[in-house]
Specification:
The chain has about 250 residues and is α+β, with helices and mostly antiparallel strands. It has eight helices and seven strands.
Length: about 250
């Protein structure tokens, strides 16, 4: 398979960036998208050129480290992570545009790598459950009804890749934040911090410079783990509920 790649190259956050064109030959349809980028980098290194920087880790669609915009779509044409996208979804002779996540809260570090530490700060503001130190409590001490456990697990599937932000025309982090809030707020173990959690995490989200949500729905469409759009409505209900109660 022969491809024409138009890749965003940017030395650092302060340097200007531009799309650079590369021609690649001998790509197998069984390669993953990241393996294709590995092949490109091998050729660039052999030529004495700087390889393209991109995020990756487990390459199993679990860690959320990878993520680029491919032909205008976060993670590409399939609803999966970039590492799980395979070249069989492209055709011989295709031109592929590859860009980093585009959001004010995700500054470019280099090339396709962006700084997503804003997500860490949102989680740090309330994405946890306070428990006493010492011996571990009995696992069945607090029964969790199956519908509640299922709802918590649905939101816990969020891997924090940032595709929702990249796909949103406003650069909003509402789907990510709602997943992290609802995951804990529906569980009885999360009840003690229920109000402070949603208030603090939403406040941090706004302070990080993410855009506002206008329910465009692109976030849920791009999410590789299928976090549902109603998650945002559930978070808004939690926020309104907590806002009218004294802290």
């Amino acid at each position: 398979m022969r491809l024409v790649l138009r890749v965003w190259r940017q030395r650092n956050a302060d340097a200007p960036g531009a799309m650079v064109t590369y021609r690649l030959d001998g790509i197998s349809e069984n390669m993953s998208f990241l393996e294709m980028l590995d092949t490109l980098n091998e050729e660039l290194i052999l030529k004495g050129e700087d390889p393209v920087a991109f995020d990756h880790d487990c390459r199993e669609g679990i860690c959320g480290a990878c993520g680029v915009v491919i032909n205008g779509d976060a993670h590409g044409p399939e609803r999966t992570t970039t590492c799980q996208l395979h070249m069989r979804h492209f055709r011989d002779g295709d031109t592929i545009d590859i860009e980093p996540w585009r959001a004010g809260a995700f500054p470019v570090v280099k090339d396709l790598v962006v700084d997503r530490s804003a997500f860490d700060r949102i989680i740090g503001a309330g994405g946890y459950i306070t428990v006493p130190t010492g011996a571990a409590p009995e696992a069945h001490a607090t029964p969790v009804p199956k519908p509640v456990a299922d709802a918590a697990f649905e939101h816990a599937e969020c891997i924090g890749c940032g595709a929702c932000v990249a796909a949103c025309p406003n650069g909003s982090a509402m789907l990510f934040t709602s997943a992290k809030i609802n995951h804990l707020n529906v569980l009885p173990q999360g009840a003690p911090e229920r109000e402070t959690r949603v208030l603090d995490m939403v406040e941090t989200m706004d302070a990080e410079g993410f855009g506002g949500c206008t329910l465009a729905g692109e976030c849920a469409t791009a999410c590789p783990k299928g976090i549902p759009l109603p998650s945002i409505a559930a978070m808004n209900r939690e926020f309104l509920r907590a806002s009218v109660r004294p802290r």
